[in-house]
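Hi, here's the filled form for the chain we discussed.

Project: internal
Contact: R.S.
Residues: 303
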Amino acid sequence: MHEEKQKWLDAMGSIPKSRNYGKATLINSFLFEDFHGEIYVQENGCGTNQRVIMLFPKEMQKPAPAIAVPFYFPEAMLGSDPISGETLDTYRGIEMMLHLTRRGYVTISAEAFHLTYIKSEKSRGDFTRWQDAADELKRDHPEYTGIGKLFYDTELLIDMLCADSRVDSARIGIAGHSLGGKMAFYTGCLDDRIGAILASDFGIGWNQTNWQDDWYWGGKLEHLISKDMDHAELLSVASAKPFCLIAGKYDDEISKNVMLQASGYDAEDDRLLFVNHATGHRPPMWALDMGYNFLDKWIRNKL
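And the returned structure, exactly as it came back:
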């Protein structure tokens, strides 16, 4: 299995690391009625940093189980800007950090590399920033990939959780929607410290979503396909780790077949959960609750 894992890591490319790579500095904190939060700046490359938010339930176990929630930027997964008080209505209903913190988890999220790798006057919501950042990354490191950058930046969040005495490092999961689902799936499959994966509508098949874009695999995707590398194989690398896939638009019944092709599982295996709400890209709350219950089973209630 080590060789299979290394094959995927080699395909993504190695990341150039700075002397203080991964160092996190606390810059602010805030208090809500039922949880409090901390804001960090974490070095994630040579001269680059990602802004990180950690949330802690008001009443929590010590040490507590934790869930990493990668996405475009952390406030989206909180549903508001905790400093300015601005409500982010675009993300209403999918603010996984907020949901999971209220379930008793420590949660963590950060900015993705379209906001951290380049300086830009474009707004945070301008999606052309993705191509700009991917182009700059390719110029700097031709053998590196966008998906590799997303994976290694997400691993830094797991590093922070494992280094925090308030977190039970034996009970760490990962959850994400859309882009965050891609990040959750890759990091969950390749990082042994993660005990369970929840991913929502990220398009597990190569043809189901935009894996060919430069901020994911770019031109390397054709090489992967020629080598018969697919996400059933990547899930196999996770050694039958509990995995819940919420389908809605980009994932569908075909996605379930991909899951079942992974080695180590069978059709009735309770380590696999497939939830197809079939109502579009945004999951309804009942579907998210099924995913959260899955995390409770494999992370919070882990003996």
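Let me know if anything looks off before we file it.
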